[in-house]
Amino acid sequence: MGRIHLRNLLARPADIRVVGVCDPRPDQIAAIGLPAEVAVFPDSRELLGHPEIGLVVVASPASLHSSDVVSALEAGKLVYCEKPLVTSMEDHRRITALETHHGRAMVWVGFMRRFDPAFQALKADLDSGAIGPISHGILSHRNPSVPESFTDADYMLETFIHEFDALRWLLDVEIETITVGGKRRTNSGLMDPQFVTLTTNGGQRVMIDGHITNGYGYDIRCELVGERGSRSLVDYAEETGISAAPHATWATRFSGAYRTAIDACIDDVLAQRHTGVTSREAERALAVALSGIEAQRTGRTVSVGVG
Ligand SMILES: NC(=O)c1ccc[n+]([C@@H]2O[C@H](COP(=O)([O-])OP(=O)(O)OC[C@H]3O[C@@H](n4cnc5c(N)ncnc54)[C@H](O)[C@@H]3O)[C@@H](O)[C@H]2O)c1
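Above: query sequence and nicotinamide-adenine-dinucleotide SMILES. Below: predicted holo structure tokens.
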């Protein structure tokens, strides 16, 4: 993911400069093919001490986001952080406390679906009232494979968290409860597929099916049903109607959205404003994911905390 952000930042017009990158694995740095003017920092402390750096893009593994973001904020830097911003409420509070201390929202969170043209068109249709008030929805998150180390908790924090944020944004609601069921794979401890049911404070019921070891490709869908019709977002090949997965991975499906999201963040930084996804917005999606982990473990319907 970090490489995609770097490529997009280097493609900006000359209104910013990419000062340097930091990755503890030299092979990862070597694979980037860095332009000569971009420095390599052996550790993040040196990078954060650089006076020319105003914004830090965090695309390390999710378990490291908390310490990376906290260090950046303590150094007075602005941050664009990949989802999930953090993986616990305690870590989340450390970030918002630092933002409060600095007196401003300093973190942009990479929920890039909000910047995807297909999701934006869907939102525009919902906002226009064309299909009337939404009664329910059916969403899918399908992915060819995940590492063997991927856990049920990762399913919530890394995968479904996209749907939680997108739904809140699309419907302008809060998610109130979550229930999770599924089928455990025989060759690993992971439950896959998983079926999530959400209820919202708008009175809607939404089902999400996740299947992240489907073998055939990356396939994101969303159908929202209103009182006067329904609106779908599907990427399948129209001539056959078969979901032969036009995208092998997330990297091609959302390539435009990654670029637009980080461009919007840079535009915000240059204009000294924040129009993107704040840490406080990310906290709501995190609360749903953490409740989802409890729902996976207990098999019960779990109420999402109000934060
Ligand atoms: N928005 C999306 O659609 C999307 C897609 C993929 C990944 N992501 C997110 O991006 C983040 C990274 O995921 P990935 O798939 O690129 O993981 P990855 O494991 O492929 O890459 C992580 C990189 O971070 C490096 N790293 C480890 N510790 C570091 C540190 N302390 N400082 C700097 N770099 C460090 C690793 O060496 C590796 O090169 C995760 O939060 C993930 O959820 C988001």
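The longest helix spans residues 152-171.
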